[in-house]
Amino acid sequence: MNREDFEPVPPEMVEGIRRGMQRGPYLGFLGIEIEEVRMGWAQMRLPYRRELDQPAGVVHGGAIASLLDTVVVPALLTSYAFPRRMLTIDLNVHYLSAAAGQDLIAVGWIRRRGRSIAFLAAEARREDGEVVAHAEMTYKVTPREESTTGAG
Questions:
Q1: Which of 7, 11, 32, 87 is the most buried (most CB within 10 A)?
Q2: For 114-123, what is each residue's pLDDT tens digit?
């Protein structure tokens, strides 16, 4: 999906999303950074560091899955009224290539959005442009005060 297919968002919205996502310690641990946010689309970077490698010397699939699951959150936040709780219902990752010694850049977008269910897609590339993984996911989106359970 091309970024030009998605409308720009105001800088203050991007800053609000960035501040909100910084509240979670897991993203800080991974070092995931927001690079760009558009309506229903986002791009993030996972800076490479050795702590993310698995024993074979490539980035652990769990770190890649976390990047893919996270990159869709700003896309969702631009498409639903605040405040919202977004929970991953389903995450299906296809690993296509290994990532070693390079930052990973991910893009995520909304494929279809309903009142409380959203279908999303994301892909992660190495800095050299090689696609490392592709994901399809489903999120449940509810008002924050509504009681829900879920994985993510």
A1: 32
A2: 999 999 999 9
